[in-house]
Design goal:
The protein is of the alpha+beta class. It is built from 5 helices and 9 strands.
Length: about 190
């Protein structure tokens, strides 16, 4: 099955909207502890590309058994190996200067020009510079509400094998009150369908 950027993007958006997902470096491999599933920044991208988009992580030397990750027997990549080792091996991923390239939804952004403990990666949620991913313990796993400056990230990784980049979801609309009332009536059995 070929890699599907739109499916990877949709998976990332979905995970960011879950209330039972959080950030942890200790349990970064999609491990669930006390009902909360955890990622760190690079494992979030790893699982988005693998579980969401169908990236063949086995061809890169990673386990393809999700239970190995859940039970701590396997590890997802880290920012440096993602940028320097693994994604360069995958046909269709191209590398750009993040500060001098207009971002597209689904682009992977990485900050690698800092000490190891400050390296970071996220996915572009919406151009020009809105991102999503596993941020830190305080911000958790979410879609950023603000814009990240072009000068923050130094690497942009774009999958060029998709005919079109993902389209960010539009702003959510409130459900009309008449529709809520109708749903309540249907659930109570007051309306024949």
């Amino acid at each position: 099955m070929p890699f599907d950027l739109n499916a990877a993007y949709a998976w990332a958006v979905s995970e960011c909207q879950r209330s039972d997902v959080a950030y942890s470096q200790t349990y970064r491999n999609q491990q669930t502890v006390n009902g909360i599933t955890y990622y760190d920044c690079s494992s979030f991208i790893f699982f988005a590309l693998w579980l969401g988009g169908g990236l063949d992580v086995g061809a890169l030397g990673f386990s393809t058994n999700i239970n190995d990750y859940h039970q701590g027997r396997a590890n997802a990549w880290v920012v440096t190996s993602m940028v320097n080792t693994y994604l360069p091996q995958v046909q269709g991923f191209e590398f750009y200067d993040a500060a001098n390239t207009a971002w597209q939804a689904g682009d992977i952004l990485a900050k690698t020009d800092v000490p190891r403990e400050r390296r970071h990666t996220e996915m572009c949620y919406a151009p020009p510079t809105r991102t999503m991913g596993a941020h830190n313990t305080a911000s958790g796993v979410s879609i950023n509400s603000g814009e990240t400056g072009y000068n923050y990230y130094n690497v942009l990784i774009r999958y060029t094998g998709s005919p079109t980049p993902p389209t960010p979801p539009g702003p959510s609309q409130p459900v009309p009150i008449w529709l809520i009332k109708r749903a309540i009536e249907i659930n109570k059995g007051g309306i024949d369908l």
